[in-house]
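ingest -> validate -> predict -> emit
validate: passed (alphabet ok, no gaps, 227 aa)
predict: started
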Amino acid sequence: MRYLQVKDWRRFQHYAKRNPPWIKLHNSLLENPEFASLPDAAKAHLIGIWLLASRTENRIPEDAEFVGNRINAQSKVDLKKLISCGFLEVQPASSVLANCEHIAIPETETETETEQNAPNESQEPGEEMPLIKNLAFEGQVLEITEREDDALGLAYPHIDRVASYRQMDAWLVANPERRKKKFAAFARNWMSREPKPSEPVGSQRVVEFGVKQPSEESKKLLEKLGV
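emit:
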């Protein structure tokens, strides 16, 4: 039997090599033309498949009846449609082998909340735990932490940062070959090119988006970014 996997599954995950009790659902789906083109039933089926993937380590049998039963679908699941729209893809043989060798350990939501800062007894010496980022913005590609957003707000108080982040994310999605690894530096370069208005509205932005006043840590980051 062939197996399917959710494309770009990393976007939905929060923990490396874990079976999470919940997944991320990006509101950018509302602007996704492929998602918009799906029938309403297929949209619901897709969300159910995303949830199913979180329980199967993104290894889903290419069996519409099986998938429909697992996600409690009331109508037939059209896997071919979801594949043709780019939401699902056939899992490579190498991934199937790797999944066969690994056993996922489910975790409860309570365990998720309490274990973030707890030491991992099974962790190998020198191995780092996955970092839990406090994100101010999370797009399809772009990620800006609260500390980075704080520093950028200090440097560019006249800019609508949320709108600017969305533009950056759209550009990164459209130009995968030119994607940057250092998002904060990319955001700094982007914002430095935006024209300044005659009257700064930085204080209004702080109130509108609920951004905290820059901390000493953010000021150090600002110096590191060179702005």
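Residues 135-225 form one domain.
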